[in-house]
Amino acid sequence: MVNLRSIPILLSVVLTNSLPAEELGKMWGTADEEAKYYPIVNVPIPKDVPMRPGSFEVLPDGRLAVGTRKGDIYFIKGAFASPPKPEYHLFATGQDEIFGLSWKDGAMTTTQFGELTRISDTDGDDVADRYDTLTNNWGYAEGHEFAFGSKHDPDGNVWVALGLSASYHSRNIFRGWAVKVTPDGKMIPVCSGLRSPGGVAANAEGAMFTIESQGPWNGCCSLKHLKPGGFLGHPASYNWYPFVPSMETPKVTPNGPSRFQVEKKRVKELVPPVIRFPYIKMGRSISGFQLDQTGGKFGPFENQLFLGDYTLSLILRATTEKINGVWQGACYPFREGLSTGIMNVQFTPKGQLIAGGFTTTRQWPVRGSEPFAIQRIDWNGKVPFEIKEINIKKDGFLFNFTKPVDKAVAANPDIYKISTYTHIYRGGYGSPEVDQTTLKVTKAVPSADGMSVMLHLDKIIEGHIHDFSLDAMKSKEGKSLLHTKAYYTVNEIPNK
């Protein structure tokens, strides 16, 4: 049993929201405009609390739970109030880099470097006194071997994405794999081929995904589908297939340098990235993410994914759809100007988005200047004019907007600028954008209500990111888009 001291603290300190001078790549330049719709609210942190958030959860009683890099779990009362009036309570300690929190059946499940742990308070004093290891059936020996965990799925499982050893190797069992852990602690290997994953979460249809960082065999950050039996791209983790009798070792390894759309025809297990995020333009070290199921409390983006970025201190949006049995989708700018490196996000019962994280001394640069922070993004009820969602069609793309467009402007094919490119699939670190093309809009057809526009194109290129610029688009009221860029990853073209 571990005895911990409760530390309720009321605060009125306000953190600064500043950006460092270091140039990490030009960003969108829309922070001031974004604030008109989605203001950032700081949740004050006591000076004596080593709060380096790595994960969040909302407790049944409405408190915010925070798992930290140092291995503590704090419960915070008042984090969702306006303005926040937080009271911090230390619930548990002694863990190791908590990058997953999920509350179920009166206990907290934590994902940390070496194990999945169920932590509970058996005597009702609001301090953890029981720590049960659900599983530690993966190897762990060095500091790159992070483990990121999901919330409980509908069957009570927690999905865990395991980082490689030193980014290039799999020196410990199941490093570079995704696994799921059942409520009784059975660990089931799901798929191989990860490098340095971040968050793990489901989309609106319940499919499980993880974020992958740019690096060897990964030209840029990407959202990857945790397809059972799949191979997600990095061959270092092939060596653990003999420990999974139910899964056949892929007979072919990927060639490099090549292209993903070429190699997926050679390696039948290869699962293409669902969404590729163009480097720096749309993230540099994408981290934890969560589905918006707030019922419209966070604005017009219900059932979309919201993703943090560690290096660029911002939040992105993403949408997914399944085409010919394969997941793919689009990403969109959302909110820049947060004050530290974002490690994870969490929606609140009031429809706010909690975002938090920290900076490190590991030579990983961060745009935000604060060493650690918890911030809240609130929607003030005003709807920005945005590209809401892009869906692929057989001969083009359907653009959905948050407000009606000026139909005369939207019907002009010349206002749409579309380029495409892909990345080199190789063992070297990252990739430039290659195989560039320019596409032509042959016809643009606004819907009767102006809420969508169908773009018919001269062609669609499989395997390419389709990079859209809508600088000239206007709303019915004559307003410009808040964000004029969007990017769709084409893995498959619809058959009909």
- What's the gyration radius in Å? 22 Å
- CATH homologous superfamily classification of the largest domain: TolB, C-terminal domain
User: What level of helicity do the residues show?
Assistant: under 10%
CATH architecture of the largest domain: 6 Propeller
Q: What is the count of structural domains?
A: 2
Distance from first to last alpha carbon: 62 Å
Number of helices: 3
Low-confidence runs of at least 5 consecutive residues? 1-22
Largest sheet properties: 8 strands, antiparallel
Shape: globular
**Total number of strands:** 32
Overall average residue pLDDT: 93
What's the CATH topology name of the largest domain?
Neuraminidase
Question: Can you list the strand order of the major beta sheet?
Answer: 18-19-20-21-32-31-27-28
Portion in beta strands: 35-45%
State the name of the first-level CATH class of the largest domain: Mainly Beta
Structural class: mainly beta
Protein described:
- With 496 residues, this protein is mainly β.
- The chain folds into two domains: 31-377, Neuraminidase, CATH 2.120.10; 387-489, Sandwich (Immunoglobulin-like).
- The protein has helices at residues 31-34, 260-266, 407-410; strands spanning 40-42, 53-58, 64-68, 73-77, 87-92, 101-104, 107-111, 116-120, 130-135, 147-149, 158-162, 178-181, 187-191, 197-202, 208-212, 221-225, 275-277, 286-291, 305-309, 314-323, 326-335, 342-347, 353-358, 372-377, 387-393, 396-401, 417-423, 433-439, 441-446, 452-457, 465-469, 485-489.
- The chain has an eight-stranded antiparallel sheet, with no helix packed on it.
- The chain is globular.
